[in-house]
Amino acid sequence: MAAPSARSRRRADAERSIARIVSAARELLSSDPNATTDDIAQAAGVGRMTLYGHFRTRADLVEAAVADTLRAGEETLASVDLSGDARAAMTRLLASSWELVAESAALLAAAEGVLPAGRVRDLHAEPVRRMAELVGRGQEQGVFRTDLPNAWLVSLTHYILHGAANEVRQGRLARDVAADVVTKSIESALAGPVAS
């Protein structure tokens, strides 16, 4: 039986391997959604057996990379000041959200290619909750439209953000104007008819 210190050392080694693999997956999949597990193992400095010892399938690895990206992004989004006027708060939230989405567009494309339908959305639960609360507050303040359901307006912002990221990735929208295009599109969609 291994001594506790040997087990602790193996556990720490395993955690470091997992962290290197996930980091390599994030980096490679963010530039090429078709990066293979072999590419990722090589970039992480581990063998295929080690990679598959931690992640049984490519989908498991992609999901871990997306979850790690979202955890890091959550730190940024949680620090955005959402107080005061909902329109001004939305502008601040969209600026941070756009940067995160733009950086992870290829990774999300990889995820949508291998994860079950709806899983990518499930992984976005906290950003979706934050956006829903802000949209609801804007509806209560009378600055966001009330003729459409909150859930639809939140989905609409999600579609615009991810659609713009895809347009940038495909070269159909310049990255230097994309943030402005996204913000104007979402603000226009939210500021439609409001209750009188």
TrEMBL record:
Q: Where are the transmembrane segments?
A: none
HTH tetR-type domain segment(s): 15-73
**InterPro entries, from UniProt?**
Homeodomain-like_sf, HTH-type_TetR-like_transc_reg, HTH_TetR, Tet_transcr_reg_TetR-rel_C_sf
Q: Which residues bind DNA?
A: 36-55
Pfam families xref list: TetR_N (PF00440)
Looking at the keywords, is Repeat present? no
Keyword line: DNA-binding, Transcription, Transcription regulation
- According to UniProt, the name of this protein is TetR/AcrR family transcriptional regulator
Q: What is the lineage of its organism?
A: Bacteria, Bacillati, Actinomycetota, Actinomycetes, Streptosporangiales
